[in-house]
Please model this.
Amino acid sequence: MGLLPAALLGIDVDAFLAGARAMDARTRLEDPAANPAARLALAWHAVGNGRGERDMVVLPYRDRLALFGRYLQQLVMESIGKERDREGRIVRQGLTVYGNKGSTDQHAFVQQLREGPDSFFVTFIQVLSDGGAEATQPPLFVEPDVTSGDYLLGFLLGTRAALAEKGHPSILITLEALSPRTLGALVALFERAVGLYGSLIGINAYHQPGVEAGKRAAAEVLTLQRALLTLLRVEPQRLFTAEEAALAAGGADPELAHHILQHLACNGRVVAEPAASSYRTRYRAFAEK
Model:
């Protein structure tokens, strides 16, 4: 679904799909040594003992990949985080993903990565070309014989070496340039790796019962909100605490009612009469004009 907004932004979506198609062919090879997605999935399995025992920290060293870690967080955690395996046994599998852009944002957490708990591995993503696939500008020299891109490479290799010095494992993925085609290949690589890793640990990576549970719970909250508003409007002069309103609305969760009524009052949709404790605040509907 991201192709339409990408096309509207002028991104070459045909090139993006061509890159994904090329990676798809590579990731269908039966020899794991020649299959980059299989190698990536096997690395995840080895470093986390097949249990996701280490978090994956994503550090792409390119501004235009600043959101890639968030994408991987959604892809990997939604696909791998499962309570049960394909046989119905409780396994509670998962692979936690976090991270942000390398160089600048790495300062937010590299100190702990190097000297804190040994509970992670890093996925570094480097782009060899400093100016992108269609670079038209000469490199920016910030010192004699040193460009801004050289500094970026120094940060990446230096950070990787500093972590390795403390025994922290890492994976390095290298792109020659960043373009729609190589981005398509990168996305496809991780998508295929997730599917293969799911097979290795015996879970179904292609359904999201936890996501559906959250959606159902959200729908129940909105149903309760409608019930509370109806209750207050039926007796517009009566003041209810959240607990009283929850009981009158069919025995709902008082704390849930409290948060809903707080939200409605803050947004001017019901009247709140404050009390010493926020849980004793009383609510009523606005009087009809």
